[in-house]
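[Discussion] Sanity-checking designs against the backbone

I'm trying to build intuition for which residues belong where. Below is a structure token string of 396 positions. I'd appreciate it if someone posts a full sequence so I can compare it with mine line by line.
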């Protein structure tokens, strides 16, 4: 078993242990290290006394509160350590408690307290050794370097803790941003699906209502026409059900997190069939005109173009009381402009109702714009401009 395999779990358990338990164990360890001079006398005729032992204990016991009151603990140990050295019964070989409080002050205290404690210990150690008999030159370097190293380790721990806190805070922020982005994407997807369901249902129901109203009128005078009307109702219902199943399948697959094969959404190429269906189902004369060079558009723009024309024709059937309508597609280098014009009265709801609001939202979602109002020769006209971002990028 490698050393890392057992050191890492031990450090993890130590970090989760209550601070008082850790600090009490550290104080006991320092007290034991200080007591070694009484347990194993060196035999150099150094005096031993219970007063000296109490001074030694005073350098260890305050460490229990080193994290609760770091500067106060450092002051207590800083007073007891030179007192023990001056009392000289026995003198401390290594200031264990002093090294711990220097580390603690460097890691936890504000700058002025750190500087005061470092300068005080360097001066105190130097003066104590000057007034101590038989001090060897190497002892100055040893004790002063011990003080500096303990302080430096505390600074390293401080920087490491700040770096870890910053990483954790950044991770929390990223997690919150990721959750917000996910929720925003879900909201946008729900809004898109809601618009699609509105367009599908409104279009299909409008066609079925028109045919259902016409069917009873001609059922006796023109049975063939009545039969065609009922066939149109059935066709519109089946088409609506198929599109709803596709949308509900998208919802089901997204909830389950499964990517499945789905039928493609209708695009610009499906407008020919849409115009034909509306004309045959409602009796409305619908003409499709195209200018410019048609080309594939981004998938979202393709769907938006189809749904915009579908919604505009649905509004014409439901509200305009029109006899004819024209769908114009104007292809330019950087955009597709759609215009749906009828010879009716147009919507009467303030702001154009939910249909026109949905048209504007779809155009805005693709970076385009939508306008609606009176046509140049009467009637009602909807104009939507959908930019071709991919085309612009290629030209740029």
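Best answer:
Here's mine. Compare freely.
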């Amino acid at each position: 078993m490698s050393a890392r395999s057992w050191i890492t779990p031990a450090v993890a358990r130590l970090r989760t242990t209550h601070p008082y338990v850790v600090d009490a164990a550290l104080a006991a360890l320092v007290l034991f290290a200080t007591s070694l001079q009484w347990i194993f006398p060196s035999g150099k005729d150094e005096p031993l006394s219970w007063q000296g032992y109490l001074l030694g204990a005073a350098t260890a016991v305050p460490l229990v509160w080193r994290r609760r009151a770091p500067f106060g603990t450092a002051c207590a140990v800083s007073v007891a350590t030179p007192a023990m050295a001056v009392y000289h019964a026995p003198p401390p070989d290594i200031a264990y408690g002093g090294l711990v409080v220097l580390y603690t002050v460097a890691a936890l205290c504000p700058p002025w307290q750190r500087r005061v404690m470092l300068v005080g210990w360097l001066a105190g150690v130097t003066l104590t050794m000057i007034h101590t008999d038989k001090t060897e030159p190497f002892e100055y370097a040893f004790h002063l370097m011990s003080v500096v190293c303990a302080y430096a380790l505390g600074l390293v721990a401080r920087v490491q803790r700040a770096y870890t806190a910053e990483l954790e805070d950044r991770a929390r922020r990223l997690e919150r941003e990721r959750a917000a982005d996910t929720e925003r994407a879900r909201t946008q997807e729900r809004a898109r699906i809601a618009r699609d369901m509105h367009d599908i249902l409104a279009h299909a129901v409008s066609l079925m209502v028109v045919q259902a109203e016409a069917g009873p009128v001609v059922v006796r005078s023109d049975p063939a026409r009545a039969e065609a009307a009922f066939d149109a109702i059935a066709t519109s219902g089946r088409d609506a059900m198929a599109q709803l199943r596709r949308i509900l399948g998208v919802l089901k697959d997204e909830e389950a997190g499964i990517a499945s094969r789905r039928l493609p959404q209708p695009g610009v190429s499906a407008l020919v069939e849409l115009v034909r269906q509306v004309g045959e189902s409602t009796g409305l004369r619908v003409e499709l005109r195209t200018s410019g060079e048609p080309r594939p558009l981004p998938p979202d723009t393709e769907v938006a173009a189809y749904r915009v024309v579908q919604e505009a024709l649905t509004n014409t059937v439901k509200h305009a009381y029109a006899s004819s309508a024209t769908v114009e597609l104007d292809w330019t280098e950087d955009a597709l402009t759609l215009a749906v014009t009828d010879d009716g009265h147009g919507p009467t709801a303030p702001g154009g109702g939910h249909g026109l609001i949905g048209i504007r939202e779809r155009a805005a979602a693709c970076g385009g714009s939508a306008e609606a109002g009176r046509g140049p020769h009467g009637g009602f006209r909807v104009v939507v401009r959908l930019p071709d971002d991919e085309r612009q990028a290629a030209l740029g």
